[in-house]
Design a protein that fits this description.
Radius of gyration: 20 Å
Distance between the termini: 18 Å
CATH superfamily of the largest domain: Enolase-like C-terminal domain
CATH class of the largest domain: Alpha Beta
Helix content: 25-40%
Oligomer: single chain
CATH topology of the largest domain: TIM Barrel
Structural class: alpha/beta
Shape: globular
Largest sheet: 7 strands, parallel
Strand content: 15-25%
CATH architecture of the largest domain: Alpha-Beta Barrel
Number of strands: 15
Order of helices and strands: EEEHHHHEEHEHEHEHEHEHEHEEEHE
Bound molecules: 2-succinylbenzoate, magnesium ion
Strand order of the largest sheet: 5-6-7-8-9-10-11
Length: about 375
């Protein structure tokens, strides 16, 4: 598989509703869509880096630079046998997982197109539907949040995740539990706390949460382990896990009892499969996170979530929630049991990617 062209589309997508986390509010998503071609076949990927380095150190512009200066020229000089060989090609590049992932994903899709197989088949995904959860941002008031939870439950979302930050934590969870004592509920702090804030988590421990996602800083593995000793609610790591090695360390020191895997955060599908293999071997629970992707990144996430060890509801909601246009056809709808079908309309992503629409939303295009 020799890649002929690597194209980067900068698209700007307006979210239907602003999404607020402890690190800021997102109204628009500036997204790099990658397109690679080989002998008339094409593959697409989506870069999840944001405009600023708030979720992680990567940004849209850093990814653009890493791809155009290094990854694309190297890729065009190499004949890869399989997408999993891409890791070896870029191993010289430290970090920059999101930049690597969006090109690797495009190669999996391209390979699927060439061999007439879906990404799900290529990676050994086994489920036909995946359980869907919803991630609700920080709201203007607790009443608004409780109203949104009610609507999500009516839609049959299988679990509710709320974002927390200092000042929007224990009281909010208590207010939700007063109305909904039994629902599957979890919180995500996006690294808003330090170990010295442990009393907050000791208080949260009373509310029967499924898990507490990324309470502390991304480099604080040991502090997460210390915190886990003091609470019985499982800690789930997101930002801290950038590779299978991070996963191994976090599991070994008991800093994390569940992992939110975002393929883009760990450098792509190949590294995701390594984490999946580790989890499978010790019967460890995973689920697939989201980064407000369009249908391109999401279709890949759905294929990943269909792997056997992705055993908990995923941050993969119906397309409706995110954007008015999702760049793919068909879009993802929620079934009446709160699941989403793994798409299988065509090889690769299982959905058709609409290049015309990408071009319509693109503010810039680069050929690397
Ligand atoms: O921490 O999981 C997160 C969105 C942007 C950045 C980080 C996170 C999120 C979400 C949204 O929680 C999940 C989704 O895409 O539905
Ligand atoms: Mg998270």
């Amino acid at each position: 598989m020799k890649v002929d062209t690597v194209e980067l589309y900068h698209v700007k997508m307006e979210l239907r509703n602003p999404f607020r986390t402890s690190f800021g509010e997102t109204k628009n998503r500036e997204i790099l869509i990658t397109r690679v071609t080989s002998k008339g076949f094409e593959g697409y990927g989506e870069c999840v880096a944001e405009k600023g380095p708030w979720y992680s150190s990567e940004t849209v512009d850093s990814c653009q630079a890493i791809i155009s200066n290094f990854i694309a020229p190297w890729l065009k000089e190499t004949d890869l046998e399989h997408p999993s060989d891409f890791q070896q090609l870029v191993q010289q590049i430290k970090g920059n997982q999101m930049a690597k992932a969006c090109i690797e994903d495009a190669l999996w899709v391209l390979y699927g197109q060439i061999h007439n197989k879906s990404v799900q088949e290529l990676i050994g995904g086994v489920k036909e539907t995946i359980p869907s959860g919803i991630s609700l941002g920080i709201q203007q008031s607790v009443d608004i949040l409780i109203d949104k939870i009610g609507k999500a439950l009516e839609r049959k979302y299988q679990r509710i995740k709320i974002k927390i930050e200092p000042g929007w934590d224990v009281d909010i969870v208590k207010a939700i539990r007063d109305v909904y004592p039994k629902i599957l509920l979890m919180v995500d702090a996006n690294s808003a706390y330090r170990y010295k804030d442990k009393d907050i988590f000791i208080s949260l421990d009373r509310y029967n949460l499924m898990m507490i996602e990324q309470p502390l800083q991304y480099y604080d593995i040991l502090d997460h382990a210390k915190l886990q000793k003091e609470i019985s609610t499982p800690i789930c790591l997101d930002e801290s896990i950038k590779s299978v090695d991070d996963a191994r360390v976090a599991i070994e020191v008991d800093a994390s009892r569940i992992i939110n895997v975002k393929p883009a955060r760990v450098g792509g599908i190949t590294e995701t499969l390594k984490i999946h293999e580790l989890a499978r071997s010790i019967n460890y629970p995973l689920w697939c996170g989201g980064m407000l992707e369009t249908g391109i990144g999401r279709a890949k996430n759905i294929a990943v979530a269909s792997l056997s060890s992705f055993s908990l509801p995923n941050d993969i909601s119906e397309s409706e929630r995110y954007y008015t246009n999702y760049l793919v056809d068909p879009i993802f709808e929620l079934n009446s049991d709160g699941t989403i079908n793994v798409p299988n309309k065509c090889p690769g992503l299982g959905v058709e990617v609409n290049l015309k629409t990408i071009e319509k939303y693109a503010t810039k295009k680069f050929e690397c």
